[in-house]
Amino acid sequence: MSNRTISMSDRLYDYLLQVSLHEPPILKRLREETARHPQARMQISPEQGQFMRMLVQMMDAKRCIEVGVFTGYSSLSVAMALPDEGRIIACDVSEEFTAVARRYWQEAGVDRKIDLRLAPAVGTLDKMLNHGEQGRYDFAFIDADKGNYLNYYERILKLLRAGGLMAVDNVLWSGSVIDKRDKSEDTVAIREFNAALHKDKRIDLSLVPIGDGLTLARKRF
To answer: pTM (2 decimals)?
Structure first.
């Protein structure tokens, strides 16, 4: 028994993966390829990908949004959990990064489930709202430029149905959020984002200490 979340040593983390991770081989290969990428730190952890797959399955989600694709591990994880008719609107600005994602989506046979939109995500989300898509989505994942987190959040909250779920990555920011000396733009943006959601009465909120911190925001109405 414990009245707080335990610390995770390397040995304990390895044990967590050993007894809980069921990572499909194609996801493992994508993760290993991404580990050699110069921006590999942008990759989510495998247990986080598995956790999001379970969330999508539990919700029986069919319509999803992703902001920040990178090499496609998170979108592939979610797409593999969706039913045949499930779809993801995947937002990114990098043709180079998402070219890797496209290869794996196609190999996994889920490319037809993923609608990749290469443009600034705020504009993509605004177009979706202008086309009357409010309240039509079940699940969303945000893992992109931190300065726009609140902009993405507000738009996606409108696009989610009541009871829909938003997951937001990097909300603990390697612990920098509690370092008062850190005034960097990204750190300040994450602090402001966390504080804003804590006050938001439109959602049910949980910050889960998985990966670099994952906020879950369930839309109440």
So the answer is: 0.96
